[in-house]
UniProtKB/TrEMBL annotation:
Name of the protein described by the UniProt record: Aldehyde dehydrogenase
Family: Belongs to the aldehyde dehydrogenase family.
Gene3D superfamilies per UniProt: Aldehyde Dehydrogenase, Chain A, domain 1 (3.40.605.10), Aldehyde Dehydrogenase, Chain A, domain 2 (3.40.309.10)
Keywords: NAD, Oxidoreductase
Domain Aldehyde dehydrogenase: from-to ranges: 19-476
Length: 480
């Protein structure tokens, strides 16, 4: 049985609470490990360790800090197979996906921010020969990073790496549902020689452990990715303490397909943007809007390619759809499928739990599900389902599709498919989304601002935005 430990002040230690939570393998429904059920005392010890480590860590040159981060990136690369297996087992995602997406991206996060810190220049403003102002960016101090279960190591490292790069020390909590790769990362940090206390990984649930991180007065900034309701609660706690907040929350993203698109590429990519990671990516396009002249053709080709998806044991090479992350999440998604039927949706594919024979008989598998005939403003089309469930809706005009696409409380990402370059830019600029992909999906450049509008979040991650978030700007004015 895998028994996970906290990474506190450079050591792997049991929680001060002495309590543990079960860790369940979603593909089998069986408990396969234990994770610390840490509480406020564990968090306080982590903050104390981080505060003690801070002066030496921030005094290191960006190059020296970067060298350590790149060493961690190299160790992630060297342990790719072990990490991918752990991620797949913990989350239910296909091993093949963890191998090519989650773990390589975790290494890229450390590599990118390890090298980026050396390019992080300060600004200067000269006032007509009268004065010069220059901006110093100091590390914020000890920061909290709280991450979700859908892309566990990928999102955990996306927060930790920029914080460490600029000289902050970190108290981090991975999701209690998928703690395994964060634990393996703590072993790699020890192997890399990361100084004690610079990064502390405390495991536990949201209300006890996450809440204690948000409430602790020693934590100066919080970077959070997760559900919108949790983000709202977190903001309510942190705002009166004037903590800096970066919130990456939910999405209900439109995928707009115009009749002049490259249909084959649009269909193939839309299968991925609908169902990758069992639809459990905040960037998945769950509302497909198709221009009426190609609606039937798109639908037929989409359903034909969907039939080639294989729901099965995440460890098998042929599997494209693994298990949903938990029994509770499976039931949440199944409840939305019932709601879609009640709202008048016509079921075109899926809609039911899948029984995978053998070791996965008790796993949380769901057939990729497609509905049509639902109004754009029904709950199915407005609320985040965060699973392999999409809707198809025809449209006639650009104006109509924009009003449907922008109708939700979310504004994270959007995809549009067209060969008309002017329309592509016009529609992109009119979409209320922090991220717009034209003729592609999840094409990432780590330098770009990443985040959402409306209820999809506050602030931006990525590139300079992340480096700025984890620093305090101080202006120094010198009279010439
Ligand atoms: N990136 C995204 O957009 C994600 C969206 N979701 C959405 O959120 C829904 C709920 O999923 P959950 O697993 O419950 O996500 P969640 O938002 O509750 O969990 C994310 C992280 O926040 C922590 N957390 C929970 N309560 C907290 C608190 N009071 N203070 C500090 N940290 C806290 C959790 O332990 C976890 O590490 C999902 O069904 C999905 O719709 C979930 C995960 C990722
Ligand atoms: O940074 C990325 O490429 C992806 C981020 C995805 C999320 O934040 C999410 O699914 O929660």
């Amino acid at each position: 049985m895998l028994q996970i430990q906290n990474y506190l002040n450079g050591q792997l230690v049991p929680p001060l609470t002495s309590r543990y939570l079960d860790n369940v393998e979603p593909a089998t429904g069986q408990v396969y490990g234990l994770i610390p059920d840490s509480g406020p005392d564990d968090v306080a010890a982590a903050v104390a360790a981080a505060e003690a480590a801070l002066p030496a860590w921030r005094a290191l040159s960006a190059e020296d800090r970067g060298r350590l981060l790149v060493r961690i990136a190299d160790l992630i690369d060297a342990n790719l197979e072990r990490l991918a297996e752990a991620e797949s087992r913990d989350n239910g995602k296909p091993l093949s996906l963890a191998r090519v997406m989650d773990i390589p991206r975790a290494a890229s996060n450390f590599h990118f921010f390890g090298t980026a810190a050396g390019h992080f220049a300060t600004e200067a403003h000269v006032q007509d020969g009268v004065a010069v102002n220059y901006t110093v960016r100091h590390p914020v101090g000890v920061v909290g990073c709280i991450s979700p279960w859908n892309l566990p190591l990928y999102l955990f490292t996306w927060k930790i790496a920029p914080a460490l790069a600029v000289g902050c020390c970190v108290v981090a909590k991975p999701s209690e549902i998928t703690p395994a790769t964060a634990f393996l990362l703590s072993e790699l940090c020890i192997e890399a020689g990361l100084p004690a206390g610079v990064l502390n990984i405390i495991h536990g649930n949201g209300p006890n452990c996450g809440q204690a991180i948000v409430e602790h007065p020693g934590i100066k900034a919080i970077s959070f990715t997760g559900g919108t309701a949790t983000g709202r609660h977190l903001a309510r706690t942190a705002a009166p303490m004037f903590k800096k907040l970066s919130l990456e929350l939910g999405g209900k993203n439109p995928n707009i397909i115009f009749a002049d698109c490259d249909l084959a590429t649009a269909v193939r990519t839309s299968i991925r943007s609908s169902f990758a990671n069992q639809g459990q990516i905040c960037l998945c396009g769950s509302r497909l809007f198709i221009e009426r002249p190609i609606y039937e053709q798109f639908k037929a080709e989409f359903l034909q390619q969907l039939a080639e998806q294989r729901v099965g044991d995440p460890q098998e090479a042929s599997t494209t759809q693994g298990a949903l992350v938990s029994e509770a999440h499976l039931h949440k998604v199944l409840a939305y499928i019932e709601l879609a039927k009640e709202e008048g949706g016509r079921l075109l594919a899926g809609g039911q739990r899948v029984q995978v024979p053998g070791r996965c008989a008790e796993g949380y598998f769901l057939a990729p599900t497609v509905f049509e005939n639902l109004p754009f403003d029904c709950r199915t089309n407005q609320e985040e389902i965060f699973g392999p469930v999409v809707t198809l809706t025809p449209f006639d005009t650009e104006e109509e599709v924009l009003s449907m696409a922008n109708s939700t409380d979310y504004g994270l990402s959007a995809t549009l498919w067209t060969r008309d370059i002017q329309r592509a830019h016009r529609v992109a600029h009119a979409l209320h989304s922090g991220i717009v992909w034209i003729n592609t999906w999840l094409h990432r450049d780590l330098r770009t601002p990443f985040g959402g509008m409306k209820n999809s979040g506050v602030g931006r991650e990525g590139g300079l935005e992340a480096l700025r978030f984890f620093t305090e700007a101080q202006n120094v004015c010198v009279k010439l």
